[in-house]
Amino acid sequence: MAAPKDPRPCSIADTLAVVGEKYSLLVLREVCLGNGRFDQLVRNIGAPRDILAARLRRLVEAGVLTKRAYSEHPQRFDYRPTAAGLELEPVLMALKEWGDRHLRHNTDLPMAMEHSCGHELVPVVTCRACGSPVHHDDLTAHPQTPGWTVRGPAATS
Amino acid sequence: MAAPKDPRPCSIADTLAVVGEKYSLLVLREVCLGNGRFDQLVRNIGAPRDILAARLRRLVEAGVLTKRAYSEHPQRFDYRPTAAGLELEPVLMALKEWGDRHLRHNTDLPMAMEHSCGHELVPVVTCRACGSPVHHDDLTAHPQTPGWTVRGPAATS
DNA sequence: GGAGGTGGGTTTGATTTTCCAACTCACAGG
DNA sequence: CCTGTGAGTTGGAAAATCAAACCCACCTCC
């Protein structure tokens, strides 16, 4: 039934609809670092204030962030990650790791992330079942949406 | 040093400058699935053709994809991931996992990814040094760029 | 009690992107 | 010759982004 023009139903696309707009993941980065105030976010991200306000509204409504008053009189707010927001950290780690490896050759040193085991964190994606690092060739995709194959929409009559 | 308005130097931001525009990661998804032809990408992603063309140029120039002629006469091309492109798959896996868990409650079944160990893939980010799954509280950030702290730009004189 | 500063935004208007449909060009098949 | 396919490009309307200015409640300093 997949009408012409419907894209592939996909959790990647759905997740990007939530956090894929410009600056959204940088907001999450700062908030995970503990920098949840509006002006900190503006400075550290470099986003226009109006856009940032829009992103914050969206992320709160999506359940990724919560807005909390850290002071009444004067009313002052900050933003903190929800449990769901913290579960997006693997996305940040994967992006950081790629950038560290491929982009950071002529620039400053990357931000160091120290793991509680005492070593510098190098994130590795592993298979929960067998524990081994996941390699592209080890994967086989099986679409489960009727009307869709790996290649695209099933041939329509 | 850290002039007003300079954002935090960061590999996450740098990586997003390469693959963070709308549709770029969906292009990578399709290309990793083996769907590298222009019309397949248009159908499966649902992107406007002109935007898609722009994204493909950018991803090729950034070294994430290669453009290859799979036929001369008529000239026909497809796009495939480079080694660097394949290394972005952890980002896709992390996005997919989050969407599967948080967004896919009233919708179709998610795409199943079968790992070569025989089980359904559930990606887990682990620390390469100690092998244990990474949890937010186990991390401590140490900026290494002069003029920057975790909180933001260092107090200027 | 006025002057200035801070935090958390909103408003305004110019600039950029995105979107969509239509178009092109080269070839292939019947 | 007529139609179809693959891989885009073109043109103009609609939407998002940008930068800077503005706002308002409160606080501190003098």
From TrEMBL, chains A, B:
Coiled coil: none annotated. Keywords: DNA-binding, Transcription, Transcription regulation. Residues 10-107 form the HTH hxlR-type domain. One of its GO terms (molecular function) is DNA binding. This is Transcriptional regulator. It comes from Streptomyces malaysiense. The lineage of its organism: Bacteria, Bacillati, Actinomycetota, Actinomycetes, Kitasatosporales.
